[in-house]
Amino acid sequence: MTSEASSQEGGSMCEEQTISLVDVLEEDEELEEEASAVLAGSDSDHCSYPLGYVKRQALYACNTCTPKGGEAAGVCLACSYKCHEGHELFELYTKRNFRCDCGNRKFSDLQCKLQPDKDDVNSLNKYSHNFFGVYCTCRRPYPDPDDQVEDEMIQCVVCEDWLHSRHLGCMVPDCVELQEMICEACMKTSPVLWEYAAHLAAAGPEEPKGEGPGAEAIPEKTENKEESVTKPSCKRSREEGEPCCRLKELQAGGQKRVQSGAVFWPSGWRSKLCSCAPCQLMLSEAGLSFLLDETDTVLEYENKGKSREREQPGTDPLMSALDNLSRVQQLEIIHGYNDMKTELKDFLQRFAAEGKVGQKPDFVSSLFLFFLSVFSSSSFKQVRSWLHSLVYSQGRQPFFF
Ligand SMILES: [Zn+2]
Ligand SMILES: [Zn+2]
Ligand SMILES: [Zn+2]
Ligand SMILES: [Zn+2]
Ligand SMILES: [Zn+2]
Ligand SMILES: [Zn+2]
After folding, report:
1. How far apart are CA 70 and CA 276, in angstroms?
2. Within a domain: residue 172?
3. In a domain, 255, yes or no
4. Neighbours of ion ligand 1 (CB under 5 A)
5. Does 56 reside within a domain?
6. Pathway of this protein (predicted)?
7. Ligand nearest to the CA of 225
8. Distance 86 CA to ligand 3 centre (A)
């Protein structure tokens, strides 16, 4: 509605639709906060290698330096900018416990410009087909030029692969509270997860009529495991006056679940997992210790980035505009935005000093276009003059101021 008014040559601005540039600058802060959420703890200037295996960071794979057929390698955010500029990069979003490989033995020619002194390999890094630019059980690139189906991709919190929602083997719940997904393959490697799923997760598929081989066979296995591992501990911890094993308590509830398809978990589900010593050992042996760490989640990572700049959550005009872009494009734009933020603020402050008012939605869209132009032309001066001409276009009727 407000965009209509703005197209009327500025003359008919009504007061409810206008905001002061103080508001604009506040909005700028909100945009900044959203930008932080995407890049969060990842440093765009310094190679993360000295930090070791970083708990979670934005990660890239370079198809130019380490193409398919060779060894997989991953590089940090800063290296993606400084050492692999102009290369074909795969945006891996964030991954846990990874140490930057840039310039190590896996790179035959390239030397890291930021941290050239690296061990030959990072033996604890885990690699997947994602590092060669393919995702999901169908092993397709993203975006996929041959895929006409509009489908979202969801990251498994265990293997951290991205899966098409149509390849999850389950219905994707509408509920936004269901924030974490574990893919079927990961579920099947850890029977204890099915135990938890029966009690904590979103409803699974319907019990198949007539036969349910999966549902029959696997619970038996988990019960065996529980007998041997969980039960003794329960006694021990009682003797020590500690609460009994929570897994054991859940199992006493006796709920079962069809063991197929991916599983969606409600927010806070990790806090409901039992962390008694035997359960910790069991999760550790399954390589799932991180599930006991609520700060391991991507959400936590993003929130950390947001709170780093400000405490209160803002609206997301930039993010919604960015939704239509790939992750690589998003990060490029946001990164560039951070770089020239100060420049932009100075520019806006000058208008603020003149007490001009503008229309918020137009400002947001103008600002977005502004970002786009910044990254298609690297000259700030050019962008400034572009912005000036935007402001004073249409016979000096301000477009958004
Ligand atoms: Zn690096
Ligand atoms: Zn490269
Ligand atoms: Zn590097
Ligand atoms: Zn797929
Ligand atoms: Zn998985
Ligand atoms: Zn336990």
Report:
1. 42
2. yes
3. yes
4. 47, 76, 79, 100, 102
5. yes
6. Protein modification; protein ubiquitination
7. 6
8. 14
